[in-house]
């Protein structure tokens, strides 16, 4: 079976972390508004690549990730190659109803009493269609009409199938960024403001050696959401709707970032995951959150409001941040992976993270000294002070009963901390005061993350020893 | 009547501005005397006086005799020094301090700008108030800029009339609104606005006076969507100056001493930073330095080793080769090889004879 001419033989699914055999995966067109599958273009794509699809549909073309197209993680080329050496150390993945899954979950269900291991997660699932031509692979992929988008019965499960933007699969270098934080911590507002500013600051980004453009047609898709349009429109400034736990686990938006500071232009797809905050505190929903293990960088969003109760400032947080739970899961996964591959586990998680104190305008209104030192600055692009700010934010959290927010700093190998506000003012009845509305320093955490991943020069934030970057001696 | 100066005489190269007490005796007002520096501008000044008289009359009629404080009132010829064609006299509120026209003041001292957020808000309210009145009586100002603006430390006054024009259908009024927005940008940032209002400029204005960026953006919208002077005035009244200590550069702000608890947290963070850097260094070690490449020494400069040394260090073969090399060049080599072969045969013969 031939694979699409413009795709590599395998791609990694950022949602379930499985490796997909592109010669077996279906290519489909999805409706922008409903996300439902409208048509199958597998044959066309296999013959001509994406160019064979009508231009107006190329941005809506997706690769379908189903169980039967996922490669066995134990195969020499598959995800997690070499894990068979220590089969007992790999935590078995299985859904609550005993149905096995092919996705290598790597410890996600470690402490979930509802889940019982039902077989090795390292084996390939039985084919749904049951047709076997003897080579272990099902041969009718993509050519048979099949029901689309099966009804999702369990909101804790990652939908199967799920869909990857076709163009995402074409670019080899990706940076998947996840926003972590509990419900109403301000993740979606921060992301919307961040994405908007990223589009606006073309010139200043160019000075840092990066060129940014929306990936495929994702910006148009993103802006089609009524609440996003209302939030970003100067004459409306409405609040975003709450992210539902049943919202699809797909990245909200992606940019193609061309990095030129290092001499040769390098393209990288930077994608952003934003899911309902309640999922992070719900042990049953961990299968839906598999993507957190495959993320390349993390934005931990702390709700500054949690420091204040109805009677003023507290010595401690009003509610949990969810950081602990997520970090523990990632650490656990790292431990299992290190054991399986017989490698020494690093002291720190080998990824960068930023901690963002969102809604910091509320702290400003309370005349918090440390916030007033930073929040009013228009210094998104003055990155040489990132470490100084990180230090002050650390001091602020450590001395105000918010040590929980500092967990990422001690867990990840590179981390910065920031005061930001996506709106500059408080929401009232679903609206923001148009006069007071402003995005305050929302781009700074993202640029710090770019520096920590080598997309922009790490020297701009005075950091060294960043992967993929020529290091100082 | 006693005339006394209420402000320093100013000059902008074309006109000279001097100030005196109100000739009608009002203590809250003062008069501005505008004189031409260049005699060729006399006609222009006379024309401006006529326009000022016309606009003043229209405002008086339109407002029922109450003249707004934010607009300069024409003082008719024949009173005071206004009998000369080369002098225009305007009556303005006296305010609390020295009167000054903005443009010549900026020329003398460019560091006057940007003005404080509170002053920006006041200028915004006053300028749009003046325009709202002028537009309501069917006139457009036509030259809203720093040259027309007079500041008395309490209020801003539109105090020139050289481009005033009757505008019954309001077409030119929207230009005034946009010009006032550019003026506000100029006084708020210290830089004239060139071209469109960018997003960062919008934010910059909002960071100085909350809502100013939005007001300026609305005033610079295309004419069909642009707000009127009255709407702009209402918006300007809702502007909130951002506290100066809050918007000042924190880097230059005095930093308070850490408490012992804060100092301990800071030390903790710095230690973590070092650990993180060490961890990264272990994972992504710097590339090893390339092996040093020593230059090949010139054989002629080295002292030749003796055959015995070569025999001791490297064995019989190299020693024999060296001996052959020493024996001569390529021409004598066959003779040397032959001699060696003969010697070898003799030695072998002797050894064989003894054995047998």
What is the gist of this entry?
Chain A: Residues 97-161 are annotated as: Disordered. By secondary structure, chain A is of the alpha/beta class. Chain A is built from 13 helices and 17 strands.
Report on this model:
The complex is a heterodimer of chains A (473) and B (356). Chain A is of the alpha/beta class. Chain A has two domains: 1-124 and 153-170, no CATH class; 172-461, Rossmann fold, CATH 3.40.50. Chain A is 22% helix and 18% strand. In chain A, the strands form five sheets. Chain A has a seven-stranded mixed sheet. Chain A has a four-stranded antiparallel sheet with strand order 4-3-5-6. In chain A, strand 12 and strand 13 (312-313) form a beta hairpin. The N and C termini of chain A lie far apart (50 Å). The model of chain A is unreliable at 74-153 (pLDDT under 50). Chain B has 356 residues and is an alpha+beta fold. Chain B has two domains: 10-247, Transferase(Phosphotransferase), domain 1 (Orthogonal Bundle), CATH 1.10.510.10; 304-355, no CATH class. Chain B contains twelve helices and twelve strands. Chain B has helices spanning 42-63, 102-108, 117-136, 173-189, 199-208, 212-219, 229-237, 244-247, 260-283, 307-314, 316-327, 333-355, and strands spanning 10-11, 15-21, 29-36, 73-74, 87-93, 100-101, 139-140, 149-151, 156-158, 165-166, 209-210, 240-241. In chain B, strand 2 and strand 3 (29-36) form a beta hairpin. In chain B, helix 5 packs across helix 6 and helix 10 runs antiparallel to helix 11 (316-327). Chain B is rod-shaped and about 155 Å long. Mean pLDDT of chain B is 82; it is low at 247-253. Classes of the chains: A alpha/beta (473), B alpha+beta (356). At the A-B interface, helix 10, helix 11 and strand 15 of A face helix 5, helix 6 and helix 9 of B.
């Amino acid at each position: 079976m031939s694979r699409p001419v413009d795709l590599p033989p395998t791609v990694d699914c950022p949602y379930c972390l499985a490796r997909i055999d592109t010669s077996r995966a279906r290519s489909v067109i999805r409706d922008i508004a409903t996300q439902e599958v409208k048509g199958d273009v597998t044959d066309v794509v296999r013959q001509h690549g994406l160019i064979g699809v009508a231009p107006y549909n190329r941005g809506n073309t997706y690769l379908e990730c189903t169980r039967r197209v996922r490669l066995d993680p134990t195969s020499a080329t598959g995800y997690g190659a070499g894990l068979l050496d220590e089969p007992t150390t790999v935590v078995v993945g299985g859904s609550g109803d005993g149905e096995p899954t092919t996705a290598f979950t790597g410890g996600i269900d470690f402490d979930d009493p509802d889940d019982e291991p039902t077989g090795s997660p390292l084996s390939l699932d039985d084919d749904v269609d049951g047709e076997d031509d003897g080579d272990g692979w099902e041969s009718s992929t993509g050519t048979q009409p099949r029901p689309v988008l099966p009804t999702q019965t369990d909101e804790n499960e990652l939908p199967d199938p799920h869909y990857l933007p076709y163009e995402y699969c074409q670019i080899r270098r990706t940076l998947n960024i996840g926003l972590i934080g509990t419900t109403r911590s301000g993740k979606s507002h921060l992301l919307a403001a961040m994405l908007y500013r990223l589009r606006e600051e073309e010139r200043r980004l160019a000075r840092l050696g990066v060129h940014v453009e929306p990936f495929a047609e994702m910006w148009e898709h993103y802006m089609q959401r009524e609440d996003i349009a209302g939030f970003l429109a100067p004459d409306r400034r409405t609040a975003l709707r709450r992210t539902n736990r049943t919202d699809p686990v797909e990245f909200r938006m992606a940019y193609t970032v061309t990095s030129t500071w290092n001499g040769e232009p390098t393209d990288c797809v930077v994608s952003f995951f934003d899911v309902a905050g309640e999922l992070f505190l719900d042990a049953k929903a961990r299968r839906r959150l598999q993507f957190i293990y495959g993320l390349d960088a993390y934005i931990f969003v702390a709700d500054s409001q949690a420091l204040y109760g109805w009677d003023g400032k507290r010595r401690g947080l009003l509610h949990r941040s969810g950081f602990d739970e997520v970090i523990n899961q990632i650490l656990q996964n790292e431990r299992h992976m290190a054991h399986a591959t017989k490698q020494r586990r690093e002291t720190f998680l080998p990824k960068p993270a930023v901690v963002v104190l969102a809604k910091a305008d509320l702290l400003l209104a309370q005349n918090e000294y440390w916030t007033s030192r930073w929040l009013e600055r228009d210094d998104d692009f003055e990155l040489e002070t990132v470490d100084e700010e990180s230090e002050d934010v650390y001091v602020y959290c450590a001395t105000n009963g918010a040590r929980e927010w500092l967990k990422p700093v001690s867990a990840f190998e590179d981390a910065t901390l920031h005061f930001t506000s996506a709106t500059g003012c408080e929401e009232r009845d679903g609206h923001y005061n148009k006069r007071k509305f402003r995005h305050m320093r929302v781009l700074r955490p993202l640029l710090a993350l770019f520096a920590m991943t080598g997309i922009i020069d790490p020297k701009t934030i005075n950091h060294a020893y960043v992967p993929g970057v020529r290091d100082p001696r | 009547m006693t005339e006394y100066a209420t402000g320093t005489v100013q000059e902008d190269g074309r006109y000279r501005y001097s100030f005196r007490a109100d000739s009608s005796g009002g203590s809250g007002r003062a008069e501005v005397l505008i004189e031409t520096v260049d005699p060729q501008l006399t006609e222009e000044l006379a024309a401006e006086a006529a326009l000022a008289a016309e606009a003043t009359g229209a405002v008086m009629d339109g407002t029922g005799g109450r003249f707004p404080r934010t607009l300069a009132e024409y003082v008719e010829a024949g009173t005071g020094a206004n009998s000369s064609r080369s002098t225009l006299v305007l009556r303005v509120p006296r305010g609390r301090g020295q009167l000054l026209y903005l443009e010549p003041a900026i020329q003398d001292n460019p560091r006057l700008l940007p003005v404080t957020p509170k002053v920006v808000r006041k200028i915004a309210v006053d300028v749009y108030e003046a325009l709202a009145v002028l537009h309501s009586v069917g006139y457009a100002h036509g030259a809203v800029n720093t040259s027309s603006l007079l500041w008395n430390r309490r209020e801003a006054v539109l105090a020139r009339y050289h481009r005033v024009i009757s505008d019954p259908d309001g077409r030119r009024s929207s230009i005034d609104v946009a010009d006032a927005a550019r003026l506000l940008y100029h006084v708020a940032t210290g830089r004239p606005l060139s071209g469109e209002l960018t997003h960062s400029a919008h934010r910059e204005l909002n960071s100085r006076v909350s809502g100013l960026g939005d007001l300026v953006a609305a005033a610079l919208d295309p004419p069909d969507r642009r707000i009127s002077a009255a709407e702009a005035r209402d918006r300007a009244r809702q502007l909130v100056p951002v506290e100066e200590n809050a918007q000042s550069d924190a880097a230059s702000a005095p930093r308070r001493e850490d408490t012992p608890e804060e100092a301990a947290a800071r030390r903790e963070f710095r230690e973590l930073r070092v650990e993180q850097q060490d961890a990264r260094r272990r994972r992504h070690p710097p590339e090893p330095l390339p092996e040093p490449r020593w230059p090949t020494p010139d054989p002629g400069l080295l002292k030749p080793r003796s055959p015995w040394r070569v025999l001791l260090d490297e064995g019989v073969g190299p020693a024999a080769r060296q001996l052959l090399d020493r024996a001569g060049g390529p021409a004598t080599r066959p003779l040397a090889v032959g001699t060696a072969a003969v010697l070898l045969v003799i030695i072998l013969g002797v050894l064989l004879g003894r054995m047998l």
